[in-house]
Amino acid sequence: MNFKSHLDEIEVFSKVAKAAQDLGLEAYVVGGYVRDLILNRKKSDKRDIDFTCVGSGIELAEEVAKNFDYHVPVSVFKNFGTAMVKLEEWELEFVGARKESYRSESRKPIVEDGTLQEDLERRDFTINAMAISLHASNYGDLLDPFEGLVDLKRKTIRTPLEPSITFSDDPLRMLRAIRFAAQLDFDIDPDTFYAITQNAHRLRIISGERIIDELNKIMLVPKPSYGFKLLFASKLLHEFFPEMVELQGVDSVDDKSHKDNFYHTLQVLDNVSVMSEDLWLRWAAVLHDIAKPATKRFNKKVGWTFHGHEDKGARMTPGIFRRLKLPMDDRMKFVQKLVRLHLRPIALVKDEVTDSALRRLLFDAGDDIDSLMKLCRADVTSKNNRRVKRYLENFDKVEKKLMEVEEKDQVRNFQPPISGEEIMETFGLSPSKIVGEIKEEIKEAILEGKIQNKPDKARELMYEIAKSKGVSPIKDLPKSSSK
């Protein structure tokens, strides 16, 4: 198989080929670019290309940069023997052919110069261990010493070397195997998967940052449940996400059973993924029932209950994010909010639901109400199609009511019309409990529909509340507000 016609279409390949020739080096295109080219996978964002040469990758990168008519910066990473050339459309990474080995107690490899064959065999999977030659004698030829092309056709993930060696050397490759299987919808070779199960404990030497990077990539595939099922079956999930593992299983007492919350969670995750590519909404799906094992109780009259799992799950969210090295910022707060609120819309499907309840949900959810409703729809996983249809129609009604209430009362992203500063200034108060009480009663009155969400109405009520508490104003109520 030859890719000369493809290489001729993209200028960077001729630039790299010339630089390699000038230095007397053999250079090759390797890795994911080759795999995706064969699979005809196209990406809309900035593309990266990996190059390997038999010699110094840093020297090759610096020579390539000289071949452009304009200044091209080169980032050199001497400790790793690599260099990066960034162009407008491409990021080019260069490395000399090498072989690696790892000590059992270390995350850092021992790196030595190697041949192209040794460089390809140290790679994670056969589908990533192919190269395209940039040498004049066989320009564009595909070099495939480990039958990666066959595995692409078979849709199989397999290691170039004996899999236990590959995974023991770099345990992150076990997660990468599952990530590629999920992204490409491939199977994992049985021997390769068995080796993952035998080496799962080796994941402990990998940093949390590298683990979560792979997990987030699994989360973002069109059907992430496939990746999670592989993580569970391989025992990798047990190494870094025990809370999710605990969801699995069904308990029965007196012929009463609850559903398997692990597989329910995966169905919710897949349902959300159909609606949105938002990573953090997908994390909310993963964590929405995370506290069910901790809140599970059996009652002879009603069967299994999980009372309060939404609140406990929200309290668990920061700890899980922190341990998994996920961001402890507004993204965590978004997930935490959705976990806490995910049962609220279900209570609003009844015809007699009050505007007050709708206002409170809008107030609590704010701009995240649309994401919350997506999560709630995704949470309907019954196998009874009629029941699913009924629930989804009820959610349609809730969303319509929410729109009507919001249009009328404007409580989404509600900001109290009277600030604490105005209360203190009006009554000559310093920061105190009574200021908070007045402000809270005004908010409650608006949410209960007792007054409109308008400054003049809120100001009238402020004077009434203060009077009931024996507080006199030092400023009179404006005449325009007393009508």
Automatic annotation (TrEMBL):
Family statement: Belongs to the tRNA nucleotidyltransferase/poly(A) polymerase family.
Keyword line: ATP-binding, Magnesium, Metal-binding, Nucleotide-binding, Nucleotidyltransferase, RNA repair, RNA-binding, Transferase, tRNA processing
Residue ranges occupied by any HD/PDEase domain in the UniProt entry: 257-381
GO terms (BP aspect): RNA repair; tRNA processing
CDD domains: HDc (cd00077), NT_ClassII-CCAase (cd05398)
Pfam families, alphabetized: HD, PolyA_pol, PolyA_pol_RNAbd
Entries under SUPFAM superfamilies matching the protein: Nucleotidyltransferase, Poly A polymerase C-terminal region-like
Source superkingdom: Bacteria
Gene Ontology MF terms in the entry: ATP binding; metal ion binding; nucleotidyltransferase activity; RNA binding
Cofactor(s) for this UniProt protein: Mg(2+)
Name used for this protein in its record: PolyA polymerase family protein
Biological classification of the source: Bacteria, Pseudomonadati, Bacteroidota, Cytophagia, Cytophagales
